[in-house]
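REVIEWER CHECKLIST
Item 1: Sequence provided? yes
Item 2: Single chain? yes
Item 3: Sequence as submitted:
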Amino acid sequence: MMTVAASRSVLIIEGHPDAGARHFCHALADAYEAGALQAGHSVTRIDAARLDFPMLRSQHEWEHGDTPPALLPVQQAIAGATHLVLFFPLWLGDMPALLKALLEQVARPGFAFRAEGGNPFAHKALAGRSARVVVTMGMPATVYRWYFQAHAVRSLERNILGFVGIAPVRRTLIGMMGKLDERRAQRWLGRMHALGAAAK
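Item 4: Structure as written out by the authors:
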């Protein structure tokens, strides 16, 4: 007998910094969203490229400053989600600076973690949520995974998402974007649709 997964609250964060053109990252996010909605999950979607916010410039600002107004809805969406999905292209071996800046701004003390006793990072306030990281890149995904040890994705998983309690974090690495033909593109879009339906 087939079991039906419980409905989840999914937050999609589109991390491609180019708001002026359509990219495969956007199509992947569309497919994931369509699968999730078709399966009965609720979906909130945030496009980092369409948000206007400053970069953090000091530890004092991060610890004691206010979250930029444009990012308060992002924090609210994260708080209301049970599953997060981040889509972004690999740029210079890492996530785009815009997405990193967004994560730095929203993952603040008091929201992403809270102090307990003498430990300011004792309570991981975003525990109970899972995530998937979907990364497109020009190189073969196997080269990035084995030769480069997927270092930027591992850092995101461990030092940002895991640090605030989000687990498990799964990943999808899509390589050779410059040689992506229609058959491979449709296969990846189908896989995203299926992952969205499962909300994982």
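Item 5: Key structural point noted by reviewer: Residues 182-198 form the longest helix (17 residues).
Item 6: Recommendation: ____
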